[in-house]
Design a protein that fits this description.
This protein is of the alpha+beta class and about 625 residues long. Helix content is about 45%, strand content about 15%. The longest helix has 18 residues, at about 605-625. It is globular, with a radius of gyration of 24 Å.
């Protein structure tokens, strides 16, 4: 794992130095660079593979190909042996050097042979060809901007900004953020700065820049035919075990984020199945008795003991205000998934013992772990009910109270009823957005109303939902999440907040070979008995304790609703004062007053919306002070 950066046909070595300096947290072990006229490649290295010898940038025998890599190539050893048999000579035992030699043989098509998580920059000095490459599911980040006929790139926005002296906030991105709680790719919060999309290659040669895909998840899904039968369970265990085995490739100690749920538990079981060595696991909880329902340390402890893991468990009494400011700085742009806070905390705990940790991110999107997947199946079936009756039932929703706890079932029913008159596709889009429908675009202030086409904000989501190659509503919903929420929220959060503590995070459920298997599992098998993850539960019954396979969804969460009413109440009042809201102009002050009032009295749970506004203003203040993108 590393932080990479550089420039092509613009910039200089001093810019490269400043960019690398902004990413020391991504690679505290070593700094490396390669500079020649018109080209600069820089890397901050967290040494995982070949710690002593695997220096970057890597090059070939003739020093005509230069490579920097953020991530890991899990099948690099097999590729290296093959290249050695072909006569290639290696100076290191690293995966980054394998890329330089593999490119010599296969050109840019080499990417088809890679298994792993990666953001790659490759410079071919003979062909004067410059490449940026991002892995199939977008596990590793890569930002870039075109400038004066050239381009600059980096793993994080903070580093990229060292090469871009002036940047302006993009109004449409603010509106998207307030709607989704994150800024969706390929855009960013800044004008002119983009993200390379998952499975894309950017190639610059002969003064021309072209971006194309080597992996399209929708086309990939279209080729997979649903399978049925009891052998699917065995195939699942084999596929998950194979992925976990691949993700254990490391020359340094590694561990596992263990939340007490089925995803991380299944990874632990597979780790024990493929290794007799020590396994370190890490869990966090909260000391405050008011937050007891958010503690799942007992379940994590149960599994750690069952599989003989060296378990670290910390009960915390976090300072919510201080934590929030730190998380906002590390994300680099507004990001309001409150799971960022426990992700930051558990990364901090794990980094004291290991340099690599595995995580269960992706299990819900591949195997059906969110209640909204059952909701959209139900919504599709109930479309036959007359619209007038659905509208009448929707009017019941405001009468139901919301609690804001970890499993707020009433809140889910309420959201389902509010969207009942809509088509199931529109219902789903409404469930994954956060501007209350009774406000809609009226919530936005003058800074957004005049410069944003609100009708097109979610058009990409609607298209992705409709184009997924299945007519089953839950398949369409999961396909949308694989392309949006997984990469732009969960993977982005996991990368930034683990790397804030110089910790590499690996995600076995996001392995493209495991994805290939998951796409073979039909929805009626995945959700048999109208149960979330039924297929996965049944497959793991002989592997995990019944308490885990029969229990509800678990994960690292925070008591956000209570914090906003209590611990963060003063901060909310200060940061979201009427004067502050009005001066920014992004939302109407009346909208903010309504959110805070409804949430404070307990009539509605608007923790996500208030948190998003709080994060946005904190981020803007960091920008104003010149401390953005730390």
């Amino acid at each position: 794992m590393c932080g990479i950066c550089g420039y092509f046909n613009c910039g200089d070595s001093s810019v490269l130095g400043r960019m690398m300096k902004r990413m020391v947290h991504r690679g505290p072990d070593e700094e490396g660079s390669h500079v020649e006229p018109g080209v600069g490649l820089g890397v901050r290295r967290l040494s995982i593979i070949d710690p002593a010898g695997g220096h970057q940038p890597a090059t070939n025998e003739r020093k005509t190909v230069w490579v920097i890599l953020n991530g890991e190539i899990y099948n690099y050893r097999e590729l290296r042996e093959e290249l050695l048999r072909k006569g290639h000579r290696f100076c290191t035992r690293s995966d980054s050097e394998v890329l330089a030699h593999l490119y010599e043989d296969d050109g840019e098509a080499m990417v088809e042979r890679l298994r792993g998580m990666f953001a790659i920059c490759l410079w071919d000095s003979e062909k004067r060809a410059f490449f940026l490459i991002r892995d199939r599911l977008g596990i590793k980040p890569l930002y870039y901007a075109e400038r004066n006929g050239g381009l600059v790139f980096a793993s994080e926005l903070g580093a990229l900004r060292e090469a871009l002296p002036t940047l302006s906030v993009r109004p449409e991105a603010v509106a998207q953020y307030l709607t989704l709680l994150y800024v969706p790719a390929p855009g960013t919060i800044f004008e002119g700065v983009r993200q390379l999309m998952p499975g894309e290659i950017l190639k610059a040669v002969n003064g021309e820049t072209r971006v194309h895909s080597f992996f399209d998840i929708t086309a990939f899904a279209e080729k997979k035919k649903p399978l049925a039968g009891g052998e699917l369970r065995e195939l699942f265990i084999d596929a998950l075990k194979d992925s976990v085995r691949a993700h254990l490739v490391s020359d340094v100690p590694l561990g596992l984020f263990l939340s007490g749920g089925m995803d991380s538990g299944s990874i632990l079981a597979m780790m024990r199945a493929v290794t007799d060595g020590p396994i370190r696991t890490f869990s966090i909880g909260y000391e405050d008795e008011a937050d007891a329902e958010f503690n799942e340390t007992a379940q994590a402890r149960l599994m750690a003991n069952m599989f003989g893991a060296e378990h670290t468990e910390e009960l915390l009494r976090p300072n919510a205000a201080e934590l929030l400011s730190a998380v906002v700085a590390r994300m680099g742009e507004p990001f309001a998934d409150s799971s960022a806070i426990p992700t930051y905390l558990v990364s901090q705990v794990a980094s004291r013992s290991v340099k690599v940790a595995l995580s269960g991110i992706g299990g819900d999107e591949l195997f059906g772990g969110y209640p909204r997947y059952l909701g959209v199946r139900l919504g599709a079936r109930l479309e036959r009910i007359p619209v007038w009756l659905r509208k009448a039932l929707a009017r019941i929703a405001p009468l139901l109270p919301e609690r804001g706890g970890q499993r707020d079932q009433v809140g889910r029913v309420k959201r389902f009823l509010r969207g009942f008159p809509l088509s199931y596709a529109r219902q789903y889009i409404q469930w994954v957005t956060f501007v209350p429908p009774e406000w809609g675009s009226r919530a936005f202030g003058p800074a957004l109303k005049d410069s944003v086409d609100h009708g097109s904000l979610l058009s990409g989501y609607e298209n992705a939902f409709a184009k997924w190659p299945s007519r089953d509503p839950s398949d369409q919903a999961m396909g949308l999440d694989l392309q949006t929420y997984l990469v732009d929220d969960l993977l982005r959060m996991g990368d930034r907040l683990s790397m804030a503590h110089s910790l590499e995070l690996r995600v076995p459920f996001c392995d493209h070979k495991l994805l290939e298997f998951a796409l073979h599992v039909p929805a009626h098998v995945r959700f048999a008995g109208w149960q979330l993850k039924n297929f996965m539960r049944r497959s793991l019954e002989s592997v995990l304790p019944a308490e885990i396979t029969s229990g509800p969804k678990r994960g690292f969460m925070i008591p956000l609703a209570r914090w906003l009413r209590e611990d963060l109440r003063e901060m909310v009042g200060d940061v979201l004062s009427e004067a502050s809201v009005r001066s920014r102009g992004y939302v109407e002050p009346s909208y903010v007053r309504w959110l805070v009032s409804q949430h404070g009295t307990g009539r509605r749970n608007f923790s996500d919306q208030i948190f998003a506004l709080l994060v946005l203003e904190l981020w803007m203040r960091q920008e104003d002070s010149g401390a953005g993108g730390a």
